[in-house]
Specification:
The protein is mostly beta strands and about 120 residues long. About 0% of the residues lie in helices and about 55% in strands. An eight-stranded antiparallel barrel has the order 1-2-3-4-5-6-7-8. Strand 6 and strand 7 form a beta hairpin. The mean pLDDT is about 90.
Length: about 120
């Protein structure tokens, strides 16, 4: 896990058709391939989807993570599929986010560091 990712990030997500799909707040921590390295949630109005992320691969400026919902019970209105998610550090210090998740509209967004 590259150190520049460590911390809490937040940003609004939009589906591939331009519809807002919520605000992602994610906290990255140290870890290795195959380990859970992040936790957080996507929140849209009253809908809240809590997830954990497992590290698939890492490069100095890019993470490939696999997301899954926290807990064993389905979360109403949340995408329940494990998703293929990419986080890329950009030159302006933000993270470019994109996910391959048809159920959620293949969301993208820009995340900014909170702490």
């Amino acid at each position: 896990m590259p150190k520049k990712f460590i911390g809490t990030w937040q940003g609004d997500l939009t589906s591939d058709s331009g519809i807002p799909v919520g605000t992602l707040t994610i906290t990255f921590r140290q870890g290795h391939t195959g380990q859970d390295v992040a936790s957080g949630r996507v929140k849209l109005s009253v809908l809240r989807c809590d997830s954990t992320w497992k590290l698939v691969s890492a490069a100095p400026k890019q993470l490939h993570l696999d997301a899954r919902l926290k807990g064993s019970e389905p979360q109403q209105g949340c995408s329940d599929a494990s998703t293929d998610e990419h986080f890329t550090l950009t030159s302006d210090g933000t993270i470019s986010y994109r996910a391959k998740d048809k159920q959620a509209g293949d969301p993208t967004g820009t995340l900014r560091k909170l702490k």
